[in-house]
Every structure is written in structure tokens, then in C-alpha cells.
Amino acid sequence: MALFLAEHTHPADQCPARNPELAPQLLALISNASRGDLRVRGEAVATGGHHLYLIVEGASADAVSRYFAPFGQIGSLTVTPASHCEEVVARGAC
User: Which fold has domain 2-91?
Assistant: First the structure.
């Protein structure tokens, strides 16, 4: 599986953490990703911000984008190919 960074941002006035119906659904989406073809290796939200970072392993950027599409409906979702630090050092370049 390949490594990807998935980044989601949303406006402060549309923060899903404030929505008692939507927030649990989005948390479940992250938690349940590993039951399918994806593996979430890390997740964090910038403190005081409205920016979610996910480190995900999957077959393709398209597969990651499709799975996390609900985040894109309430803001933006960007999926970028990534590498582990050891791989970058081994090849001598980012």
C-alpha cells in the first residue's frame, strides 16, 4: 500500500465538531477506514484551527479521496502522495 497525506479544512462557522449528528459520523469514518482497504496511521487537528491531518495507507490517492469524500462536502479535502522519512533519506531527496 502507498502512503498519503489527507488534509481537510473547513470554515469556523461550519465546524463539524459542533454538530452532534455529523461529528460522530466523521469520527466513525476515520475509525472504520482500517476495516476496509485503507489504514489510518495517524490523525490530528490543529489546535484552535479547523484543519485535520490524516496519514493514510491505501491503494491510490483516488481510493483515499473517495473514502474520505464526506469531509470534502463540508470544506476541502486534499490527498497527496507521501513517503516515510527513511525512504526520503535512502533516496537522497524529497
Answer: Alpha-Beta Plaits (3.30.70)
Q: What is the mean pLDDT of the chain?
A: 95
DSSP percent split of the chain into helix, strand, coil, nearest 5: 40, 30, 30
Comparing CA positions, the residue from 58, 64, 88, 57 lying closest to residue 78 is 64
- Pull the grid cell for residue 69: 469524500
- Taking alpha carbons only, the member of 79, 74, 64 closest to residue 7 is 79
Pick from 27, 23, 7: nearest CA to 15: 23
CB contact at 8 A, 23 and 16:
yes
| Residue range 46-74: mean pLDDT, rounded | 96
